[in-house]
Amino acid sequence: MRDELSGFLIECSRVKLNPGSESRVSYLLHVIVTLEAMSDECYSISRLLEKSVEKDHVFKTKEMGELVPYIGQVEEFLAILENQLSRTPSEIDRNRASELESNIDKTRKKLHKLGRKRIEAGKNVKTELLFIELVRRIERLGDYCFEISEAYR
Q: What's the pTM value of the predicted model, to 2 decimals?
């Protein structure tokens, strides 16, 4: 799909476009590349979860409970981007995107620290390393969302 969309936008750019349309085509090409990276990250997350189950490194209810609000922040970011792609983002959208990026980064640090503390407390090292990696990859999705959001400014 990336190739089809990119090809279409490249064809559009070959036509004489006004500066606003040129900027929009460039932005959409950037979005396509970033969405591809996001889909790769989602695939990596699914493989991590699959690996945790295969190796019997299943996260406990408490650990999953810590991840749910974190994932919810990224989901909210995706909803903002969905709206942004169909219209010019508002100042409220831009402010919320910055706030979400900051919150996601803070939460990643907190969850990473919790994983390290559980390792120090003698919990299963492999399970905690998988947890830390999962947290890092979820944060990366937030980074991609912010990148798309910022690219439109």
A: 0.82
